[in-house]
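P.,

For your records, the input lines for the assembly:
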Amino acid sequence: MSIELGFDPAALRAKYRTERDRRIRPEGSAQYQPAGDYGADPHADPDFTREPLHDKVDAVVVGGGFGGLLAAARLRQVGVERIRVIDKAGDFGGTWYWNRYPGIHCDIESYVYLPLLEELGYVPTWKYAPGEEIRQHARAIGRHFDLYRDACFQTGVTELRWDEDAWLVSTDRGDRMRARYVVVSNGTLDRPKLPGIPGIETFAGHTFHTSRWDYDYTGGDADGGLHKLADKRIALIGTGATAIQAVPHLGRDARELYVFQRTPSTVDVRGNRRTDPEWAASLTPGWQRRRMENFLNIVAGGQAESEDLVSDGWTSSAHMLHNLTPVEVRDTLTAAERELADEIADFQKMNQIRGRVTDIVQDPATAALLEPWYRYMCKRPTFSDEYLQTFNRPNVTLVDTADHGGVDRITPRSLVVGDREYEVDCIIFATGFSVGMSDVLTGQLPVHGRGGTTLREHWGRGLRTLHGFYSDGFPNLFLMGGLQNAAAVNFVHILDEQAGHIAEVVREAEKRGARRVEPSSAAVEAWQEALGENAETLYKFHAECTPGYYNNEGMPRMRQGYGKGAVAFHALLREWRESGGMEEVMAG
Ligand code: NDP
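Structure tokens returned:
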């Protein structure tokens, strides 16, 4: 086998395992600590005040990122009048409000990632748009659907309580408003985290987290030009998707840059380019939906699409990973044979990624450290035509921390790894976010349903939803995100499907004059049965992976999702709507 393939699968398997084992930390996710003051909002007015609100609206949407904006927009389209979006941030945008680090770009193609392009008559200026353009698009959605009128910014929802026929919504600004419907879309990657490196609090130089970039310190803006760093020695900790985008700017502008790496990311070809105006002018109605569906089918549906409209690193990788075996042959294979075929395709993809590193990075020792040894989807894939090249600069040093579980120690002036000490002026944490827990699940946002029961109590022995949206005992409450449903890499598309579905359900409730939208217990039970088909395969995949947030730092949990994936899930929702499913959720 090794002769035909040109590589030895057993040797690669063993190498992946060794590389994983040297990175496993027994404390798992507990190695991190919350960002505390690092999480403060650098963009909003700290002196902002307003009178508390004691009014009534049709719908409250918790969260003003793309999920919340889509929910509000789709509700507006079905005729809901008073919609109040509430967000802790000072404006719409969610992750694009907070993250403004240099080099920030969409890493999914903008034409499928930015929502509601046709509704707004907008075509992004780049194939992968800069963050500021995306943030401005979020604001434009707010204006287009008249969502600023009732929005509450710099406001945190502190409690939701069902009260006869509406939700009582309390906030940290003393508001007590009533809302007939509540949609919760408060994100999953919204809390910056710091590594629990001993001595971190003793550092006497400057520090900040990438999601709260300090341009006062660095100078410049998201396009770069960090002129104040010309005489500074900078340490950047972390090499995930954020670091991949920021490092080229820091490398160009800082006197010295030390990149502290524990696990290298996969860095594939980006190929960003300006939007061709002729192409933009040629688009016909329905183009964005067609393109989104096409992308989803290719990356998440395992489907052989005759045309690849997006044609980029994501879709070419998906082709490579799925299409090693033709469908007609694949159907005849046993599960073990299919797994082997997938693994071989994965080795080929990763060999290509590793080959790119050695082609680009001139110093062989640095190149060796930048080669990733794990399966492609163990970590979030990244794409850049500048990141690897940055390590060819004389002022940029890659510091490997893999054998130490990360940076060993921080002193008032330096970072220590093994017996080496790196003196720096500033430490930038590109160490990511606490993941996967919506405020509803953690209990941070208490939700009291009919009879005062809390959602946490109700879910004490496990999640209970229909389609991930609603739970029995919690009328007119819709949850968006990744609970008991199917996700995919273009998460904004997933959120749009969810928002559209919620709006259709609300439209039906209004048409029927139903007092409550609430799934029957039987419908919830039936959904639990339908879930989990693939949970075990996914669990096994993640158990073999190098640690990261995808696998709970090497301690994967059995995740309940719709095993047949997002394409099938969307079809299921459509069919449910068309074949009388609404009966299951209309009450009173
Ligand atoms: P990640 O969680 O992906 O990366 C954190 C990094 O910090 C990892 O490289 C991690 O290493 C490293 N790290 C953590 N602790 C230590 C330590 N003690 N010593 C050394 N290194 C350490 O965060 P990101 O902000 O990069 O990305 C988060 C997510 O945000 C992405 O996965 C993606 O989903 C999204 N994103 C999307 C973008 C887009 O354009 N759509 C752009 C940027 C981010 P290790 O891997 O070993 O744990």
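Two observations worth noting. The chain has a mean pLDDT of 93. The CA atoms of residues 53 and 175 lie 5 Å apart.

Regards
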